[in-house]
Amino acid sequence: MKIMKIFNTYNCNLLKHFRINQFIKKNIFLRLHKNISHISTINSNNMGELNITKSIENLKIYHENKFACLLIECLYCNNKKLYVNKITGRFICTHCMRVGEWSSCEEYLQSHKNSKANFIPTPKIFEAEQYFKKISNTLIHFSALSVGTKKSILKALDVEVLFIISLRKLPQELLPSLENYNKLILWFENDQIAWNSARTFAKKFVESRCYFIRPVNDQPSPYIAFKQDLNIEKIIKTADKMVHPSIINFSTIRKEVFAELQNHDKALGIKWSNFPILNKTLGGHRRGELTILTGPTGSGKTTFISEYSLDLTKQGLPTLWGSFEIRNQRLGKIMLQQFAKEPIHLNLNLFDALADEFEKLPLYFMTFHGSQPLNTVMDAVLNAAYVYDIGHVVIDNVQFMMGIGSKYNMGSERFWQQDTVIAEFRNFATYTNCHVTLVIHPRKEKDVEQLSISSIFGTAKATQEADNILIIQNKTLESLQIKKYLQVVKNRYNGNLGIMPLEFDKHSLSFSQSKN
């Protein structure tokens, strides 16, 4: 069994153990594709597992059903090395390194059934970015480790592969290199982003073969464990299955509960840099939750949620925006000004430098605008969560997915339509361990009245399903000056409620609060 062990001294973490396959070819290191790490717009091209399998079977192409991919003979080099992702339909040949979308091949094969495969339009060769090549220069091969460390790891490897990773994203192009292994052990750093990555990555790998080493004090990150000369074999054997049976007892989740108690601050979620009062109330931003934001027309819901989400994105949380009310260009302008903390149009010389930095953020936009069918939006969201490891989805706003679409048979009743939207995003948040923030307009009420939970448009479904409910309130003073504040009226995690004053700065388009 050929296994390559890699040590990352740059990040001081044991990155990964996986079979090398032919991903390193002709002395060229495989780097990540440009579209993976740069700011992107997303539309739905998610074929779905059943559709892809059916497509290949209809074309009478012999295939092997692997974990994350279907393995077929390459249409370009005739080697049985072409892996087609079951979820997205993206393929890559680990021999000739051709990469593309299966849908394009399917259309051509269906219309040219009597043609030779060699006449299929040849896709591009998988390319990559310079930064991965730079990272490769910081890696130490397994052979460079001490004899004792090698023995400990190999002795513990009574499994097909040990996969240890501290990366923030898992490109789908890397999945074929792990298809021959029946068991994967994930060992992450003990930080907030890594804490949430295990479940996200396990879903890509197929959870049934994944095991997870819980990050507790006596099981630190791989590199620290190595430096402290801890018993690596013993730590590896503590790995628990990611998937549990439908009915469990406490002993099954005991270690997970202990890990959360020992890492209490991390379990609270990612802290906002610009909203310390919100941290005190909500504790932090946690994956798997559903947040609803509402407020009067013109109260600044989009501007606030833009800064709210940007704060988290700057800390490394991959974020997907669905802006149905304003176009992405305008939203991008708002976010770039919030990022710069000054009006860029007054000094355009700053644009290129700021834009270069902004592009590095794990921020993605759906290309929809105006009313959209729910099934179309959900396909795009699911695709993005899988491909880009999204941890936060923002939908502005829910009303734009009502009244269109036949897949969900929503009928004409608006409340029923909204309940269907809420249910879909609630299930998505839970299943993918992704935080979803929905902007919902309030009912039409008298201007003098302060909004409450019952002011949210629709039935009680939205407020019942939500983990957090935030309301932007406008309060008119005797001087006729309008004061804004954010009110937390529901907090399922710890029950804390409260208000946060909102002082808007037109210069930076910011509601940021001083940490003092």
What does this structure look like?
There is one protein chain. The protein is an alpha/beta fold. It contains 17 helices and 20 strands. The protein has helices spanning 34-37, 49-58, 102-111, 130-136, 147-156, 192-205, 222-227, 232-236, 250-262, 264-267, 276-282, 301-313, 328-340, 351-359, 374-388, 414-432, 461-465, and strands at 4-8, 13-18, 40-42, 64-65, 69-72, 82-85, 90-93, 99-101, 139-141, 184-187, 210-213, 240-241, 290-294, 319-323, 363-366, 392-396, 435-439, 468-476, 482-491, 498-502. The strands form 4 sheets. It has a 9-stranded mixed sheet with strand order 3-15-14-16-17-13-18-19-20, with helices on both faces. Strands 4-5-6-7-8 form a 5-stranded antiparallel sheet. A 3-stranded antiparallel sheet has the order 2-1-9. β19 and β20 (498-502) form a beta hairpin.
